[in-house]
Amino acid sequence: MNDSMQKIWNKRPIIISGPCSAETEEQVLETATRLAATGKVDMLRAGIWKPRTKPGMFEGIGTKALPWMASAKKATGLPITVEVATAKHVEDALQFDVDMLWIGARTTVNPFSVQEVCDALRGVDVPVLIKNPINPDLELWCGGIERLQKVGMKDIGMIHRGFSNYGNTEFRNAPMWHLPIEMKRRFPEMLLICDPSHICGNRTGLQNVAQKSIDLDFDGLMIESHIDPDNAWSDAKQQITPERLAEMLNDLVWRFENSDKKEFLTALAKLREQINHIDDELLTLIGQRMKIADKIGTYKRENNITILQTNRWNEILAKAFVKGELLGLSKDFITKYFDAVHLESISHQNKIMND
Ligand code: PEP
Ligand code: MN
User: Fold this and answer.
1) Range of the domain at 342
2) Residues with Cβ < 8 Å from 228, sequence gap 6 or more?
C-alpha cells in the first residue's frame, strides 16, 4: 500500500466516514470537506455500487462517481475507500487510485463473488477489508479471509456490521458481539473495525454501539455521514452529519488494551490472580457437582426413574433467581448458567443410564 495509507493502517483508532452512497459530485465533495474539517476522520468512504434488497431502489451512481471520490481526495487529502463486489468494480476502483477496498456483507456470503473479487486482486498491493456475512456464519467470514490470503493479499482487515435476523429488534443487524470476539481470537493480529451504522439502522444507537466496540478493543470505526441525512438516497435513517460525528467521537471514551502505567498493571495483575483462583475453585466445585449427579444417575437407573424431573428443576431455578438478585446477578445470566449446568448434568446421567 502507499505511504499515507500505511500510516493510517497503523493508527489507532482508524476512523472511516462518508455517505452510504455517493449521490452527486457536490455532495461527495462537501461531505469530504466537512469531514476533513473535523480533524477526526482518517478516510472517506462512499458506496458507488449499492447492493439493494429490492429492485427499483437507488443502486448507486456506478463508475461515474469514482472521479468524484478522486477529486474529494485531492481537495481534502483524505484517502478513499469504496465497496467492491465484482472483478469490474475492482478494476475500475484501482484505475482511480482508490486507497482501500471493502467487500460488503452481501458479497461475503457468496464464495463465487468473493473468489471473483480475489482473482481480480491478484498481484495488487492495496488493503482490503471484509465485512461479516449477513448471516451469523463465522466460517464464511473466515473463508473470505482465507481466499484473500490465498491470492497473496497482505493487508486484510475485518468489519463487523452485525447479522440480519427476522423480525424487529432493537438493531437493524444484531451485533452478536461474541462472534467478532471469536474472530479476534482466531485472527489476533488482524485489523478489526466496527460499523455501528449498519448495526443500528438508526442514529440514536450509534454512540452506544461505538463505545461497546471500543471497550472490546476494536481498532476503529466506519460510520456513515451525510450533509443532509434525512434526504440521503440510501440508509437515510442511520446517517449523521459530519459535525454530529465529530461530537460523537469526542464523547467516546477511548480505552486501550494495553497500558504501560506500572501501578495500574500491578493492580490489574493482582485482581486477575484473584479471578484465576476463583475460576479454579468454581471449576472444582462444578466437577464435584457432576460427581454427585453421577451418583444420582446410578440411583435413578436402579430405580427406573426418568433423568428429567421438571418440578425439581423449577425449584432449583426459582431459588437461584432469588439468591442471584441479592448478589447482583441478572436473571438472564442465572438462566444461562443453570441451563448449561443442567445440560451437562443430563449428559452425564444419560451416559450412566445407557452404558
Ligand atoms: C454499506 O456499507 O453501505 C453497505 C452496503 O453495508 P453492508 O455491506 O454492511 O450491508
Ligand atoms: Mn449503507
Assistant:
1) 262-353
2) none
Ligand in closest contact with the CA of 129? 1
Percent of the chain exceeding pLDDT 90 equals: 80
Task: Tell whether 273 and 325 lie within a shared domain.
Answer: yes
- Which CATH number belongs to the domain containing residue 24 in this structure? 3.20.20.70
Q: Measured from the CB, is residue 47 less than 6 Å from ligand 1?
A: yes
Q: Residue 333: which residues within 8 A CB-CB, separation 6 or more?
A: 324
- Write down the pLDDT at residue 120: 98
Mean pLDDT value across residues 256-272:
83
Mutate to test the pocket of ligand 1, among 132, 198, 222, 234 (most ligand atoms within 8 A of CB): 198
What's the gap in Å between 104 CA and the centre of ligand 1? 5
Are residues 148 and 77 located together in one domain of the fold?
yes
Q: Which of 198, 229, 251 is the last residue of a domain?
A: 251
